[in-house]
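Appendix C: a fully annotated inverse folding record. The material below is reproduced so that readers can follow the format used throughout the book. The structure is listed first as tokens, followed by the designed sequence.
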């Protein structure tokens, strides 16, 4: 318990803001670059699979508008259900297995639970994925939120209780605590 200098009531101790020593929150631009790499990997993989197997990952529709004054055509491209499964697997699988996607790996970015720094479980990873879709679909506001948030969390991070961290530049993370040595009796035989 901490008493304020004026002798008044109880004041809660200040909690340090930030991730564990040796880590920094992953900021907006580095995460944007990671998403671009993920998009390139996904497009390349789906195009390759589509070419090799004939499976369609995009459904393209057109809509024509004609009037006495002008004529226009709108083209819409939307992922097919199989594409949504591939996208889901691309993000959720690596988040669960490695704590990152291929796009995050070159920058040392990792996704951790915001409360205790452990890996995401399946429930949180799924919530984070659908939160990421929401963050993109609402005019990208949910991902732009990362730029202004003190913990660099987007809507999807807040919904899933996750943070994205990276190694701090110039700071060595603390060394792991060595396992205690246990004396074991030798059996000569």
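Designed amino acids, in order:
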């Amino acid at each position: 318990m901490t008493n304020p200098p004026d002798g008044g009531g109880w004041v809660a101790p200040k909690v340090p803001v930030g991730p564990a020593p040796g880590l920094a929150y992953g900021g907006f631009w580095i995460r944007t670059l990671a998403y671009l790499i993920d998009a390139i990997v996904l497009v390349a993989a789906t195009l390759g699979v589509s070419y090799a197997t004939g499976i369609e990952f995009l459904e393209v529709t057109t809509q024509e508008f004609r009037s006495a004054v002008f004529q226009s055509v709108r083209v819409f491209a939307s992922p097919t259900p199989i594409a949504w499964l591939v996208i889901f697997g691309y993000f959720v699988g690596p988040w669960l297995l490695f704590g990152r996607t291929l796009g995050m790996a070159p920058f040392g970015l990792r996704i951790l639970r915001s409360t205790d720094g452990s890996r995401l479980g399946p429930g949180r990873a799924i919530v984070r994925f659908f939160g990421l879709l929401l963050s993109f679909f609402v005019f990208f506001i949910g991902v732009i939120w990362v730029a202004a948030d003190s913990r660099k969390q987007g809507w999807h991070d807040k919904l899933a209780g996750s943070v994205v961290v990276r190694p701090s530049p110039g700071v060595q993370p603390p060394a792991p605590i060595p396992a205690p040595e246990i004396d074991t009796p030798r059996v000569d035989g």
